[in-house]
Amino acid sequence: MRYRRDVDGLRTVAVVPVILSHAGIPLFGGGFVGVDVFFVISGFLITALIAEEIREGRFSLLSFYERRVRRILPALAAVLLVSWLLAAAILLPNDFREFAGSVVAAALSVSNIFFWRQSGYFDDQAVFKPLLHTWSLAVEEQFYILFPLLLLLVWRFAKGRWSVALLPVLAASFALAVWGVAHKPDAAFFLAPTRAWELLLGALLAVGAVPPLRSRILAEGAGLLGLGLIGWSVLTFHGAMEFPGINALYPCLGAALLIHSGTRDTAAARLLSTRPMVFTGRISYSLYLWHWPLLVFAGYLAFRPLTGWETAGVIAATVLLSVLSWRYVEQPFRRGAPLLPGRRVFAGAAAALLLACLAGAHGLTTGGWTGRFAPQVAEVSAVAGMRDPEALACQDRRPADIAQGRLCVIGAPEAQETWLYWGDSHAIAFQHLYDEALRATGRKALVVGYNGCAPLFGIHRADYPLPCHAVAEAVKALIGRTGIRTVVMTAFWTGYYHDTVQSDGSGADTAAVLDAAVARTLRDLAGQGVRVHLADPVPGARHNAPRAMAASLAWHRPIDGGFTAAEYQERNRRLLAAIEQNGASLHARLSLWRRLCGEGTCRYGEDGLPLYFDDNHPAKGRFAFAREDIRRFVAGGSALAAKQDSAKPE
Questions:
Q1: Domain of 250, in residue numbers
Q2: Where are the transmembrane segments (predicted)?
Q3: Which of 178, 314, 465, 585 has CB 3.0 to 4.6 Å from 522, enough for a Cys bridge?
Q4: Alpha-carbon gap, residue 82 to 257, rounded angstroms
């Protein structure tokens, strides 16, 4: 296979948008599609080499895997080593423990599975995961474990009809991806079966499935269209859209068009073949490996968004490290001699992987190497794990189970009347306190707590796979079937107003939709003779509270994590107004925020420990000061609904 400068240039088109997107540069929000471009390039190049060697009768699986080891492992090992050293110096215990797990996953080429298993409602921000980007390397390596065997089998038993064999696999993978983004979006993003079609698209080009472009005009048009599709994707895509699925077709087809038309001397091919494009493409693997850990560690240490100059400095450091990595790590190992000549590279790879696994195991078994910090830092950081396992078993019940009342029961088992305790993840986090309050007042309640779903009728949450509308309808059916006459509602209402997209068919914006839903839900329940107890949202913190407090202790510098009372009221202005306007439909109201924000600043820690296990969910055992307020609220009184001058938690 002849060397193609334009394909190296296409690597530049892939990696630069990824870096700029991750760095938060405006207009590059869709830069993540560069990974998809990489997949198409990889599928084309690797398949072309394998197919050529199979045709000539000189293909060897050992030789193939040796090339993969030489291509992938040395630079990755260098990044893992430097990242581990930086993590040991910077990361707090909880974050270092998670990082240690990701080191093992990256070394074993299963980091896509590792990060998929971590994903979900309580997943931490990507900006705290230095090795998150290695998921794409894992996808490729998993793909190339089986793919050469498939090509060999087709050559042996189907007379080399690779196109006929690969097309159904590509179609199945693409169909799975389209289904996955609607039903299992995290799995669709991270796992190899839903990404394989992107690599296979390049593979089909390599085995000649697409006839060559004989017309120069067609070739020119294909090249320009390819650039246009990738550019349009980079400039218009955003993280909230469904991806990969159908949306991934555009950058992948763009890459395929550029590869296919690049055999002719087109304008696009000449652009991609310029010296800056080619050189950047040659160091693209190192650029991809280094940029994300550097951005994460810089942001972690700053504990705030990086400034423009800081971001520029990180990008400059990325380029410098990448050039050095390409020159002194990638190239020597790819040439083979004198560094680990021949098959000795496998022994070297095994040693490097073992070392990485041991380093990761150390971080896991030591709880994030807590000995690096004062004991209080570890104690504060540990609050991140203070959740109620009994309550967690009650969350996210299926709508059918909710409608039939197959739910957890809290409170006094002997109570005659059954209430409904309805909310989201905050209801689950507060459940143990409401259990105590219900027992103390001789009541019991069924629990409906669904992560990320506001306890409101008649709305749909966009870009969210959980059946929020179905849950609300199931609650309505449950109330109608059982004759429940008291509903206690608690949720992080602030998040729905600011961080979600909600619709009700009216075309109104999210705030208006939620305002109407609050009024409608309270009115509908009151119309059925249901007494409603509603809790205002707690203030939360600006940052993950255990991390912020631990960082302040570890780094001996103040970190602002609290909102002011004025900020709380402004953030919840629409909600508080909606509640006030519908106050006649409420039987009781709880406003814990008045206690937490009574001195002007909303506390997110007391007695040296955080109140929340993240930036808004109450940690178990840390809201004991609210016991009496919640008991009065359950008993039918409005707790802290009037302004208090002195409101320090006790």
A1: 5-372
A2: 7-25, 72-92, 142-158, 165-182, 188-210, 217-237, 243-262, 283-303, 309-329, 345-364
A3: 585
A4: 38
Q: Are residues 275 and 314 in the same domain?
A: yes
Q: pLDDT at position 339, please?
A: 65
- Within-domain flag for 127: yes
Model pTM score: 0.92
Taking residues 551-580, what's their average pLDDT? 94
Q: Is the distance from CB of 264 to CB of 219 less than 8 angstroms?
A: yes
Query: What is the DSSP pairing of strand 609-610 with strand 605-606?
Result: antiparallel
Q: Locate 11 and state its tokens.
A: 């690597």
**Where do we find the tokens 């619709």?**
503
pLDDT digits (tens, 9 = 90+) for 574-630: 999 999 999 999 999 999 999 999 888 999 999 999 999 999 999 999 999 999 999
**Torsion sign across C-alpha atoms 339, 345, 347, 353:** positive
| Per-residue confidence (pLDDT) for residue 338, from 0 to 100 | 60
> 391 lies in a domain?
yes
Alpha-carbon distance of 604 to 612, in angstroms, equals 7
3-class DSSP assignment, residue 58 = coil
What count of other Cβ atoms lies within 10 Å of the Cβ of residue 544? 25
Q: Write a three-state SS string for 488-539.
A: EEECCHHHHHHHCCEECCCCCCHHHHHHHHHHHHHHHHHHCCCEEEEECCCC
- If DSSP codes are grouped into helix, strand and coil, which group holds residue 607? coil
Encode pLDDT of 99-123 as tens digits: 999 999 999 999 999 999 998 777 7
User: What CA–CA distance (Å, rounded) separates 68 from 345?
Assistant: 11
Question: Does residue 80 sit in the same domain as residue 181?
Answer: yes
Whole-angstrom distance, CA of residue 356 vs CA of residue 538: 42
Helices and strands per DSSP (H, E), number in the chain: 29, 10
- What is the number of other CB atoms lying within 10 angstroms of the CB of residue 446? 24
Same domain, 342 and 398: no
| Each residue's pLDDT tens digit, 206-239 | 999 999 998 999 999 999 999 999 999 999 999 8
Q: What is the pLDDT of residue 645?
A: 38
Find the largest Cα–Cα distance for the chain.
Answer: 85
Q: List, as one string, the DSSP characters of 182-240.
A: HH-HHHHHH-GGGTHHHHHHHHHHHTT-S-----HHHHHHHHHHHHHHHHHHHHH--TT
What is the rounded distance in angstroms from the CA atom of residue 417 to the CA atom of residue 633? 17
Residue 649's pLDDT is 40
Q: Domain count of the chain? A: 2
Strand pairing class (418-423; 444-449)? parallel
Which of 556, 577, 561 is CA-nearest to residue 615? 561
| Kind and range of the H or E run holding 158 | none
- Does 145 lie in the same domain as 58? yes
Say if residue 398 is in the same domain as residue 290. no
pLDDT of residue 501: 93
CA distance 162 to 226: 25
